[in-house]
Task: inverse folding
């Protein structure tokens, strides 16, 4: 059967910030701690909130979060900055708030580096979701031939050799895939930054984000139109960057804006469109 818990864990291992938040909240629910996170400049900024300071004891909470995240082993995430504060009202741009005035906003903060999982654990994570086909046992022979022991021994040696070769090929394929995935991720970030620069006319720099909703819609329309004629992997990466930037702009729509709820829905939709474009870029490269 389809298990939604396994889906969340799988998405968290792939680096989905939303899935990481959900997993952390489930593990920390017994302590009444709520988490929020955003991936910024190569660091997973994590905000932990609770009703009382004793629930956010640094010496207890930091090792616990480290253990949870290293158990997940999220792809491309190594640096994590843990911030804590007494729970406040919902703030869309909470990271900007605590960076602007950390002394008055936070109880404490600490940056950690996650240990990289060993190669066998990574291979297990990559293969754990693959379906297992039932094995078909060959029918037993009606007669026992004198050479049966020799044939059985040869079969076992061949089976061991085949399994070893398969593991070696899987290891090589995983290393190539991981390298390609890191390259694609870096290109997405570069193209997202370029899309940001190109979408800002020099004469109106001060008004660039006066209406992030309208700017996000414009970028989404450009990405959708480009998707009709895209042919190369590089073009798919450009489209992925535009969708991702449009999603980031939607997250800047303020809560008192009448379009706020629409923006929240489009954050998720645009992010999914970016992931689809990234998958297409990988297919075109293979």
Result:
């Amino acid at each position: 059967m389809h298990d939604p818990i396994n889906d969340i864990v799988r998405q968290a291992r792939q680096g989905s910030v939303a899935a990481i938040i959900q997993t952390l909240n489930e593990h920390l629910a017994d302590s009444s701690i709520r988490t929020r996170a955003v991936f910024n400049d190569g660091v997973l900024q994590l905000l932990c909130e609770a009703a009382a300071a004793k629930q956010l004891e640094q010496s207890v909470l930091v090792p616990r979060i480290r253990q949870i995240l290293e158990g997940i082993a999220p792809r491309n995430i190594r640096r994590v900055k843990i911030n804590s504060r007494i729970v406040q009202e919902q703030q869309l741009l909470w990271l900007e708030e605590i960076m602007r005035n950390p002394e008055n906003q936070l109880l404490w903060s600490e940056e950690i580096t996650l240990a990289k999982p060993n190669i066998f654990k990574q291979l297990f994570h990559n293969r754990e979701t693959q379906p297992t086909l039932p094995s078909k046992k060959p029918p037993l022979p009606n007669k026992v031939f004198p050479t049966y022991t020799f044939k059985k021994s040869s079969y076992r040696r061949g089976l061991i050799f085949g399994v070893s070769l398969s593991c070696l090929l899987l290891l090589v394929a995983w290393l190539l895939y991981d390298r390609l995935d890191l390259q694609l991720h870096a290109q997405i970030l570069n193209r997202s930054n370029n899309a940001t620069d190109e979408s800002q006319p020099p004469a109106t720099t001060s008004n660039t984000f006066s209406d992030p909703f309208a700017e996000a819609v414009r970028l989404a329309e450009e990405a959708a139109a480009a998707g009709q004629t895209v042919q190369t992997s590089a073009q798919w990466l450009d489209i992925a960057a535009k969708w991702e930037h449009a999603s980031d702009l939607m997250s800047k729509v303020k809560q008192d804006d009448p379009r706020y709820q629409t923006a929240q829905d489009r954050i998720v939709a645009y992010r999914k469109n970016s992931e689809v474009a990234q998958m297409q870029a990988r297919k075109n490269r293979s």
Summary: Confidence is low (pLDDT under 50) at residues 129-136, 143-151, 201-208. The chain is about 60% helix and 10% strand. Strands lie at 34-40, 43-50, 79-86, 108-113. The first helix runs from residue 4 to 13.
